[in-house]
Structures are given as structure tokens and as C-alpha cells.
Design a protein that fits this description.
single chain, alpha/beta, seven-stranded mixed beta sheet, four-stranded parallel beta sheet
């Protein structure tokens, strides 16, 4: 069999491809979208919203960013101006200086809570996973239910995308995630049965898979497993990567000698790490994957429970391009919990101000949820371990904001801090976890280290989930990922064809 036929056969098995698999389904889907006036943005438009049709942008003027309105698809990108509405010229970000981080390189943090409907960038992952299936006739919005397994935000993003596309979405997530996530879902689902709460916390991904296996027995259910949907990776490669490169270029414009040294992101589903592939190709950026110290799968083949909500553990996601990763870092949930409490406290802001932290940075702290703080701490730890200097910039993302964790403040005050959290506690947390961030639990990877982490995925994907050894091993090679990245322009052409078929217009 020729290499091209091997690739096409593998694409079909992995739910990829750039050809129509069911013309009848495609026709029903495009007709449904035409009836509802739904137009799909291309990945290129989401990467550079200046390419969005003027009529579509004008149509957003009367649409709230949190509304269940299909026009909010035009906001599924990093360029939303949440203060004034409309578009920003550059993604919203903050640069954390040495006065904040204690390390020489600047840490540039892009804000994920600027995304619509869910206030988190996972809505982009959901869109990226659904659209290739939709435009190839593999998902029928008139008959199928979209099932979104997640540790929180991806499930919400999937439900949001499903609802505004006129189909039914099912959220599958652990029962111990923040109350705010469940309250949001209760407002957005059409049936309470569409919220499936599985045992445990973000560390219990296997239980999520088990629930999805049961749901998959009903042929009406289509499982969009973010941990194995390669378009999750491809969407972030095509959209998040360019947005972060643009933010860096803007910051570096006044200092031409700056280097985009590293991209840091918690592994979660590993989709966001796809942006690192884009940055490495263009800037030689090193890619740093992050996990919770209480469940150190990559670093120590470990297991456990933690409270860095949004990071799924005890497995290596199928869409993680492990062989392109340069470091693994573990962060303790004691640190993220403590700093989350301190950043939301007046005394915490006063202490940081006395250290010389600018007001613009203090004013940005509401953008930092638990996993966002985790990313920042990992960036600090990696910067120290790698010996980065003042000409280096480390880029990361604040995946969601503090507003998703208001209930956690009350819980943490009781469970972790003995019922109170006063000024002395604030000072102690900042001293221990921000000032005290060190190089412990940082692993700089060589080929042996990469292979060790890659091989861990065998037990989940081959032994548990039934992936063939051939398909598992194909992901070792750079050619696999290059082929995946090259599919995005083909999907864009199919999106444009789908919009033409539907007859819907951008200003509708």
C-alpha cells in the first residue's frame, strides 16, 4: 500500500480527513444552518479577525458576548475587546515583570477569559473539534448529540457551541469541579440529563472515558473526546499560535533583541500545547508541559488528587505531541490555592505593590484562575531552571479567570486555611509560593525523556481505549504532525463550501 493510502486510512480511523464521508448528512447539516442563518468562521479568520467580514462584525453590535447566539461564533478568538466591545488590534495580555516573578525574563500572559459564552479559551477547542466533523458530513446536527468529555471548561464550551449551532450537547465532567461550572451548565443545557457528573475530580479522567463508552453505545451520541481529537491540537496550532506570536511581536517591537524563548501550558488535554508547535517552527521556542505535583504523571509516573481545576491527569493525552516537548514541570496545588486566595485579597495587592509591581499588573489579577496561576508558576520555575535572561520572554496563557472560582474561596478558607485567611496568611502564601518558587520538579527533556513520557500513553490508548499500536506509534514522527497541521487550510476550504451550500450570510 502506498504511503498516501496508509495516511488516508489512518486519518479515517482517527476521525481526521479532508473529504466528505456522508453526502446526505452534509446536505442535512448545511440545510439546517441555512434555515437558522448560521455561518461558520474559518480557522484563518479566527487567527486574524481582521479577515472577518465587515457585516459579521457589525452584526455583533447588539449581541452580548455571553449570549446563546450563533453570531458569537465570530468571537471565538483571542482578539475580543471585552471593555468596549468589537475587536482589539492585539490579543489582550499582561507582561509580568521581575518585581512580580523574581526572574529576569518577562512572562507574557494572554487572557483566555476574553472568549465568549464561557469566559475561557476552551470554547475554541470545542469549535475546532466539531467543525471538521460537520463539514465532512461526519456529524448530523439534526440527529446526533455531541458529547463533550472534560474536566470542566471544554464541556462548557462544547455545550455552548452545540446550543448555538442548533444541536444537543452533553457535558461529561467530574462531580467535584467548581460549583460555578455546574451552575453555568444548568442554565445552558436543554435537559438536566445532559449533565453527566462522573466520580472524583480532575484527576479521574478514566471515569470520564468510562461514561463516554456507555454513551457511545447509543449511535445518536458522537463523542468529541478532547484528549484524542487531533483537531483540538490543530485548532490551537492554527489560531492560538499566531495570536500569541502577535502578542509577543507587539511587546518586542520596542525591544528588537527580545527572544520568544519558551511557551508554557498545563497539559490538560494538551490541545493548547499545539500552539507551541507553531511558535517553535517560527521562533525556535521551547515547549514546556505542566502538570500538578500531586499527580505527577510525566515527571514521576505518579498518581494522586489535586485542585488545579482543568488539568486531567493519570494519562498522557493522545493529542500531545510529546516528542516535540522540551521540558515538564510540576506545580503544587498548595501554591495555586494559596496564591489564588492572596491575589484576591487587598493585602496581597498591597504586598505586591510594595515590591514594585505596576498597577496594570495588579489590575489584571482577576484574569487568573487556578490553572492560570499554575501556568505562571511553571513559567517562573522553568525560567530559573533553564537559566533564561532579561532578553528572553516566556509566553503562557491564563486559561480562565478568577470569577469561575468564587465558591472555591469559601471552600479553601475552611479546608486549607482553618476557617480564616488574614493578612499574615496572605504574606505567608506570597512568600512561600511566589517568592519561593524554585527549580524543584522541573525536568529538561532529551530524547530518552521524551520517549519515556510518550511510552506512558500506551497503557491508556492501546490497552484501555483500543487504539492500534500502529496508530499509536505514528505520533512519534514529525511527519504525522506536519500532515495534521496541513489539514487546516483544507478544512477552511470545506467551511467556505459549507457556508455556500447553506446560503447563510455573514451579516444574518
Amino acid at each position: 500500500m502506498s504511503n498516501s493510502l496508509v495516511d488516508e486510512t489512518r486519518d479515517a480511523r482517527l476521525g481526521l480527513g479532508t473529504s466528505v464521508v456522508d453526502a446526505g448528512v452534509l446536505e442535512r447539516a448545511s440545510r439546517r444552518f441555512g434555515e437558522h442563518g448560521i455561518v461558520l468562521p474559518t480557522f484563518a479568520q479566527l487567527a486574524d479577525p481582521q479577515r472577518i467580514p465587515a457585516a459579521a462584525l457589525a452584526g455583533l453590535a447588539g449581541v452580548g458576548r455571553d449570549a446563546a447566539d450563533a453570531r458569537n461564533l465570530w468571537r471565538v478568538h483571542w482578539y475580543n475587546d471585552t471593555a468596549a466591545g468589537g475587536l482589539r488590534q492585539v490579543p489582550e495580555y499582561v507582561v509580568l515583570p521581575p518585581e512580580f516573578t523574581g526572574v529576569a525574563p518577562r512572562i507574557l500572559v494572554a487572557f483566555g477569559d476574553t472568549f465568549p459564552m464561557i469566559g475561557a479559551h476552551k470554547v475554541l477547542a470545542a469549535y475546532a473539534c466539531l467543525v471538521p466533523r460537520l463539514v465532512t458530513g461526519a456529524f448530523d446536527p439534526t440527529a446526533h448529540r455531541a458529547v463533550w468529555p472534560s474536566t470542566g471548561n471544554y464541556a462548557r464550551g462544547g455545550v455552548a457551541i452545540s446550543r448555538i449551532m442548533g444541536c444537543r450537547g452533553v457535558a461529561v465532567l467530574p462531580e467535584n469541579m467548581s460549583r460555578e461550572r455546574f451552575e453555568w451548565l444548568e442554565r445552558w443545557v436543554s435537559d438536566p440529563a445532559d449533565i453527566v457528573a462522573t466520580p472524583g475530580s480532575e484527576s479521574n479522567v478514566k471515569e470520564i472515558y468510562d461514561a463516554c463508552a456507555e454513551l457511545a453505545a447509543d449511535e445518536r451520541n458522537v463523542i468529541f473526546n478532547q484528549f484524542s481529537e487531533f483537531s483540538n491540537h490543530a485548532g490551537h496550532y492554527a489560531v492560538t499560535g499566531p495570536a500569541l506570536a502577535h502578542a509577543f511581536a507587539t511587546h518586542a517591537a520596542s525591544e528588537p533583541g527580545l527572544r520568544l524563548a519558551a511557551f508554557v501550558a498545563a497539559s490538560g488535554s494538551s490541545g493548547t500545547l499545539g500552539a507551541g508547535d507553531y511558535l517553535k517552527e517560527r521562533h525556535g521556542t521551547r515547549i514546556v508541559a505542566v502538570e500538578a505535583l500531586q499527580c505527577p504523571t510525566m515527571l514521576y509516573n505518579g498518581f494522586g488528587e489535586h485542585n488545579i481545576q482543568g488539568i486531567g491527569d493519570k494519562h498522557i493525552p493522545f493529542v500531545h505531541n510529546v516528542m516535540n516537548s522540551d521540558a515538564a514541570v510540576a506545580v503544587s496545588d498548595a501554591a495555586t490555592d494559596g496564591l489564588f486566595m492572596a491575589f484576591g485579597h487587598e493585602e496581597g495587592r498591597r504586598i505586591l505593590s510594595e515590591r514594585g509591581v505596576p498597577e496594570v499588573v495588579l489590575a489584571s489579577l482577576h484574569h487568573f484562575g487556578l490553572s492560570s496561576i499554575c501556568n505562571v508558576l511553571a513559567a517562573i520555575k522553568y525560567a530559573r531552571a533553564a537559566g533564561l535572561g532579561d532578553d528572553d520572554v516566556v509566553v503562557t496563557v491564563a486559561t480562565d479567570g478568577a470569577s469561575l472560582y468564587a465558591s472555591e474561596r469559601l471552600r479553601l478558607r475552611g479546608s486549607r486555611f482553618g476557617g480564616s485567611f488574614d493578612d499574615a496568611d496572605v504574606a505567608a502564601q506570597i512568600e512561600a509560593h511566589l517568592v519561593g518558587a524554585d527549580t524543584s520538579h522541573v525536568l529538561l527533556l532529551d530524547d530518552v525523556g521524551r520517549s519515556r513520557i510518550f511510552n506512558l500513553g500506551y497503557f491508556t490508548w492501546v490497552e484501555q481505549q483500543g487504539v492500534s499500536l500502529e496508530d499509536f506509534e505514528a505520533r512519534r514522527e514529525v511527519a504525522f504532525w506536519n500532515r495534521l497541521h496541513a489539514m487546516v487550510p483544507a478544512w477552511d476550504a470545506m467551511i467556505e463550501d459549507f457556508n455556500t451550500r447553506s446560503g447563510a450570510t455573514a451579516g444574518s
